[in-house]
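Need residues for this backbone.
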């Protein structure tokens, strides 16, 4: 049987009127950048790309060499195609404008170039996350305000996971679809049509070293899971924590479960740990498109009105019944 590539999938989506020509180009360019990042990630020490870059990003976090490389690859790949009005990145403080010598398009692209970068040096999966919005600026260069749209306005979202294989997972609002990189051919092959999150689950992901900082509803939920067959849930749960959101969410998407980086006393002042615009929103769109749910514990993530490009939020996402239970515990507390 002929293999369907990402290119063919996107052309068919365009013919069916589900994506515009510019959005198709945008996604293809992001996927091409992902291939380049994948090459760098997989070469590791051979290419001298491991370790610290010796700089801090806007959030005061030490940048890894690969953070910087992945960011440069995505910015450069997306500058000249004419499909974008501007970009925003975890690694760049201000809105990144399209250089004046290139034409501008109608979309805004946001990304976390290399998510889970604490895992790079230990050879554990990392990823790229991206979100696409329409440019709302009537004229002139887009500003930070142009990006301040709730996640439900995203026209596309996706991630790449650089694991034993490189996967590109995408939604344009018509389900979630996964593509595996064929390294010899250099193309993404359509391997995971209509990914859905299984309803029943026995797996959870949370950094439990923060347990003493959690709020009562999170303490209650996790305690019940840990009581297993002897507790109110009447079944045993298993725990996994990769510390790469992309890898943890990909597991949830593949075999169900719940992923949480909730509000706690440690991160209360900054609003949460994960970033709304290029981590929580795209993952929330993907999870909802796969039949799951995504909440802060108090509100649906996709309904949050952003007020800052690098805003942080609590994230609770995955199998719908579990997320709804955590939301109920918050309401009851
Ligand atoms: P990063 O974008 O700087 O890599 O940070 C985000 C990462 C997520 O991928 C992951 O879920 C979380 O931070 C892990 O945090 P912790 O080290 O507190 O477990
Ligand atoms: Mg990240």
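Answer:
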């Amino acid at each position: 049987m002929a293999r369907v590539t990402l290119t063919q999938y996107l052309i068919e989506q365009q013919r069916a009127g589900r994506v515009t020509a510019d959005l198709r180009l945008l996604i293809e360019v992001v996927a091409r950048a992902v291939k380049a990042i994948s090459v760098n990630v997989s070469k590791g020490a051979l290419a001298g790309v491991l370790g610290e870059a010796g700089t801090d990003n806007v959030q005061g976090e030490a940048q890894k060499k690969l953070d910087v490389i992945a960011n440069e690859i995505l910015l450069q790949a997306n500058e000249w195609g004419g499909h974008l009005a501007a970009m925003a990145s975890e690694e760049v403080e201000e809105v990144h404008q399209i250089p004046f010598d290139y034409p501008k398009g109608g979309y805004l692209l946001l990304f976390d170039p290399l998510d889970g970068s604490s895992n790079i040096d230990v050879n554990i999966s990392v990823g790229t996350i991206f979100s696409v919005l329409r440019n709302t600026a009537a004229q002139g260069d887009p500003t930070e305000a142009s990006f301040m749209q709730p996640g439900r306005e995203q026209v596309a979202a996706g991630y790449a996971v650089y694991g034993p294989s490189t996967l590109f997972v995408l939604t344009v609002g018509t389900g979630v679809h996964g593509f595996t990189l064929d390294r010899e051919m250099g193309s993404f092959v359509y391997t995971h049509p209509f990914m859905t999150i299984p309803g029943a689950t026995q797996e959870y992901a949370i950094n439990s070293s923060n347990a003493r900082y959690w709020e009562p509803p999170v303490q209650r939920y996790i305690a019940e899971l840990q009581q297993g067959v002897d507790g109110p849930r009447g079944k045993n749960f298993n725990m996994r924590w990769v510390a790469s959101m992309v890898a943890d969410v990909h597991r949830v998407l593949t075999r169900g479960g719940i992923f949480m980086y909730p509000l706690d006393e440690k991160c209360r002042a900054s609003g949460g740990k994960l970033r709304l615009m290029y981590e929580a929103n795209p993952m929330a769109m993907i999870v909802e498109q796969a039949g799951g749910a995504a909440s802060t514990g108090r509100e649906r993530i996709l309904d949050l009105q952003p007020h800052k490009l690098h805003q942080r939020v609590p994230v609770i996402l995955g199998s719908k019944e579990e997320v709804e239970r955590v939301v109920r515990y918050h309401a009851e507390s």
